[in-house]
Amino acid sequence: MKTNELKVNPDCFEPDILQPAATALKTGSLVAFPTETVYGLGAIYRDEAALRRIFETKGRPNDNPLILHIWNTHQLEELVREVHPKFQKLITAFWPGPLTMVFPKKPEVSQLVTAGLSTVAVRMPSHPVARELLRLTDIPVAAPSANLSGKPSPTRGEHVMHDFAGVIPWIIDAGPCSAGIESTVVMLDGVTPIILRPGSVTREMLEAELQESVAVSDGATDRPSAPGMKYRHYAPKAPVILVEGAKDEIVRKINAIIHEQGRERKTVVIGSSENLSSFETELVLDLGSQDQLELAAMRLYDLLRTCDELGADQIIIEGVENQGIGAALTNRLHKASGGNIIDVS
Ligand code: TXA
Ligand code: MG
What we know:
Order of helices and strands: EHEEHEHEHEHEHEEEHEEHEEHEHE
Number of helices: 10
Strand order of the largest sheet: 1-8-2-3-7-4-6-5-9-10-11
Number of strands: 16
Bound molecules: threonylcarbamoyladenylate, magnesium ion
Distance between the termini: 51 Å
Oligomer: single chain
Shape: globular
Radius of gyration: 20 Å
């Protein structure tokens, strides 16, 4: 298949440039497009054949439901039975932006979207290209991250090209995504808000807005939760070891592992800017400063893909502080490591 690659400058573009991609979406094609979190692989939510193609293209298990993307709150009316006042508050505070909410669904929303659940996840992205594409399409768009299932999510157009060039008809490339990790997913258990997947709208931000405490579910084990969280995820080819705990101990432990392994294995370290020069190997990638974890979130998936390109046999990652945006990063690092975690606290 020929893939149309459309390069768009997100800061300055003519809306018309997106019209052919919007038309393709409307007529049942898959279109990969940028959002502020990661790139999405979109299909209109009413087209069952197109929805099936999303699952086939990604190699995604079909018990993992999709998020619907809208540009206007009016579009919620065709999708959800009710908007709880707490969600109304969150919509006002965080949409458009990287927050997904799980609502009771209307019967019109296909079981393919929701994997048989009675709820549907919806978000309104803030990326200008995503917004314009959704406006031109004017039908809610189902979009999981535009990567092969299990791989790190795509945060650059090149990542989508790598996984899907020649496989899908449209890829819109607007450069790097600013948040770099997927949206926060939140549901209400009765009236209690629960984070199913942490993201850059943090627990602290939700609590400040709702004036109550917000729980974080262990998505790996719970049901009803974000069913997608139970799979090994965000994983590069090489095995990942995550080293967490006391700051000085982390560096010592990582160096000990490098020395134990000797030179036979190509070990790549992903660490904080502060510690880069302390790792006793040349193969070090900079995750960014410990004080700027937003930057680390933006870089993480790109660095994991870089490890594949470097032909790493093994990746060792320095853990980050588990609060604020660091909680979302820690969640992704845990998934990428498949539970291969050393705690040196
Ligand atoms: O930032 C994002 O959310 C990106 C961009 C493209 O918008 N999309 C994304 O989609 O990350 P995906 O399919 O990779 O992840 C969707 C997550 C999964 O963990 C899934 O289980 C959860 O949302 N989810 C979807 N519908 C749900 C529902 N009805 N109840 C609970 N969890 C749901
Ligand atoms: Mg995904």
